[in-house]
Automatic annotation (TrEMBL):
Source species, domain of life: Bacteria
Domain (HTH cro/C1-type) ranges: 44-78
InterPro entries assigned: Cro/C1-type_HTH, Lambda_DNA-bd_dom_sf
Xref: Gene3D superfamilies: lambda repressor-like DNA-binding domains
UniProt GO MF annotations: DNA binding
Organism: Acinetobacter qingfengensis
Name of the protein described by the UniProt record: HTH cro/C1-type domain-containing protein
Amino acid sequence: MKVKNEKEAFSKRLKQQLAKNGWAINSPTWLAREFNLRYQGQPVSVQTASNWLSGNAIPNQDKLQILAVWLDISSQWLRFGEELNDQQESTNTDYHTNITLSDFSDKFAKLTTKQKSLIYHLIEEMLSANK
């Protein structure tokens, strides 16, 4: 029954992080929709999201990575409940950044002029806040 316990533990951590961010934790429809907005692969079904929330399934690694970036946590913690050391976390962050930047220009090019302007100003604001 170790596998079932791991799935339930994953579900608990997922719900915990969703709640921490103030998001609906018991709506598989919402979770599937929000996840699919961030995921470039085959969209997940509502049933898949339901299985994550109910402790019946754990996402594969590429989906875990997306969930971790979205929820601003390490994929290691989300999957296993363990924290990364600083060196692992730095490598993990670089990996997430590469995934995000690799397709950013393609997505940005598809935006309207107004949307591009909003993104540009958002980036400027974020950079000025870091100073």
